[in-house]
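User: Could you go from structure to sequence for me? I need the amino acid at each position, not a summary. Structure tokens:
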């Protein structure tokens, strides 16, 4: 059963659904596979370092680490294919909002935010469900993921591919795979972990990817355009009504947990 879009907690707080269950599951899968690929990939890249040597030893040697890396590489490929298929089918059928795809408004938002940060505007722009920074990160992840899948497959089946494609593709794939892995790792550690965990706005963690919900106040502050779409007349008791009654539901178990932790 689909969880409701908007819920009211027993303490009166209004919560808005941000991530469905499949998206939250995907995020956990992405964390597990990415960590496993980093842990088994980087010691191969830095195999002459003491640390690389030590990690390879934990796996029982280079060969084992390579097997584990390849196994998680296959999981990563299947996840990437499924994700893209679901998104494409959802777009074609019109059952999925393409809220992570960049639009020209994002450029205007970025420009207006820059002017706001520099003190030329009194307010930042009203941002959509996913703002230009989040879209940039997502598109980077998809494109970087495709580079990792394509180069990883070349490294996995070099002899097979050399029968059809130029053999120079193999060292090129090795360079691409190795450097894109480093780029992805740095983006994750510096950008994503900061934005989702360490930033004072969300510290100790942005729980929306775990619970699936954000409070209406957070939505209003960070994604005002989406807030206006969902609550054209506001959400508090002083605004008359919370939202269209059809989408308001009473507290499901997950939201009760959110409430108890928020109190
Ligand atoms: C984001 C995900 C990934 C990361 C961070 C990653 C990381 C790495 C790193 C750092 C290396 C060592 C490169 C070097 O020696 O300089 C490597 C090697 C390798 N990776 Fe990945 N990788 C990822 C995804 C994949 C995928 C999806 C596949 C399979 C389709 C794959 C297959 C391989 C293979 C075959 C090698 C060569 C080592 C061997 O022969 O087992 N990787 N990876």
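Assistant: Here is the amino acid at each position, in order:
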């Amino acid at each position: 059963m689909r969880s409701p879009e908007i819920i009211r907690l027993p303490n009166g707080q209004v919560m808005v659904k941000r991530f469905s269950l499949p998206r939250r599951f995907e995020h956990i899968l992405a964390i597990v596979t990415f960590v496993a690929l980093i842990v088994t990939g980087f010691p191969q890249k830095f195999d002459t370092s003491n640390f690389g040597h030590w990690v390879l030893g934990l796996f029982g040697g280079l060969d084992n680490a390579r097997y584990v890396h390849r196994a998680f590489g296959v999981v990563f490929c299947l996840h990437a294919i499924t994700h893209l298929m679901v998104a494409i089918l959802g777009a074609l059928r019109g059952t999925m909002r393409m809220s992570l795809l960049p639009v020209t408004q994002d450029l205007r938002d970025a420009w207006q935010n820059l002017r706001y940060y520099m003190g030329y505007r009194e307010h930042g722009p009203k941002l959509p469900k996913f703002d230009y920074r989040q879209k940039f990160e997502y598109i980077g992840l998809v494109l970087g993921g495709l580079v990792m899948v394509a180069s990883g497959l070349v490294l996995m089946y070099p002899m097979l591919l050399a029968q059809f494609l130029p053999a120079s593709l193999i060292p090129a794939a090795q360079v691409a795979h190795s450097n894109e892995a480093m780029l992805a790792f740095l983006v994750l550690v510096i950008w994503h972990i900061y934005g989702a965990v360490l930033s004072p706005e969300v510290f100790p963690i942005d729980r929306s990817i775990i619970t699936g919900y954000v409070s209406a106040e957070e939505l209003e502050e960070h994604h005002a355009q989406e807030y206006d779409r969902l609550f054209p007349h506001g959400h508090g008791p002083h605004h008359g009504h919370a939202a269209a009654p059809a989408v308001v539901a009473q507290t499901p178990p997950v939201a009760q947990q959110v409430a108890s932790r928020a109190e």
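One structural detail worth keeping in mind: Residues 21-98 form one domain.
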